[in-house]
Amino acid sequence: MIKVNFKDPAIWLATWFGCGLMRPAPGTWGTIGALPFGILFLAWGGLPLLAVAVASVCMAGYWAAGRFEDQAGEHDSGAIVIDEVAGMWIALLPTALNIPLVVAAFLLFRLLDILKPWPISWADKKLPGAIGVMMDDIIAGTFVAVLIVGARLAGFG
């Protein structure tokens, strides 16, 4: 069991309210846990609200991941999934709530997060601390967003 203080709000944020504690595949659970919030932000406030939410979760995630790492004494614990939240929300930005594009964003994000092609793998292995925890998923989400924009420009969605 992970040695962290579950009374600390940073721990609940880092695990996205416990999604990161679910097994197997906590990253997938964290991404699933991120989806309804991202979709609601898009539905309620469109791209501007989701963009503000992305910026906010990136900053909060950096803080929460750092607190989690300090308490757990390990780098990039699988229980930290706030990075998946940030990446998934970035991937959702260009989907315009088009269901096939939302599904594609989810699947592509999970694929890139698992396979970690360069430069995602570089960020995962080379960046220290909380920035390393967050940045690989931010890059993966950005790649997916670019792919979704390309799909939309090509007439899909």
TrEMBL record:
This is Phosphatidylglycerophosphatase A. Residues 12-150 form the YutG/PgpA domain. The keyword Transmembrane applies. The chain crosses the membrane at residues 40-65, 86-109, 129-151. GO terms for biological process: phosphatidylglycerol biosynthetic process. Keywords: Membrane, Transmembrane, Transmembrane helix. PROSITE patterns: PROKAR_LIPOPROTEIN (PS51257). SUPFAM superfamilies: YutG-like. It comes from the Bacteria. Pfam families: PgpA (PF04608). InterPro entries: PgpA, PgpA-like_sf, YutG/PgpA. CDD domains: PgpA. The keyword Amino-acid biosynthesis does not apply. One of its GO terms (molecular function) is phosphatidylglycerophosphatase activity.
